Amino acid sequence: MGTRLSSVFGRWIPGFLVAMAMAAEAAAQAYPNRPISLVIPFSSGSNVEILIRAMSAEVSTMLGQTVVVESRAGANLRLPVIAMRKAAPDGYFLAGVNDALLVTQTIADPNFKLEPGKDFTPIAFLMSFPLVVVSHPSLPFRDIKGLIDYAKSNPGKINFAGGSGSITQTTSERMRGLAGVDWAYVPYKEGGLVMPDLLQGRVHLTISGSLLKPSIDTGKLIPLATTGQSRWSLFPNLPTLQESGLNMFAITWYGIIAPPGTPADIVKRLNTAYNDAIKSPAVAKRLSDFGMSPGYPTPEQFESLTRSEVSNWTPIIKAAGIRFD
Question: What does the pLDDT average to over 157-172?
Answer without folding.
Answer: 92
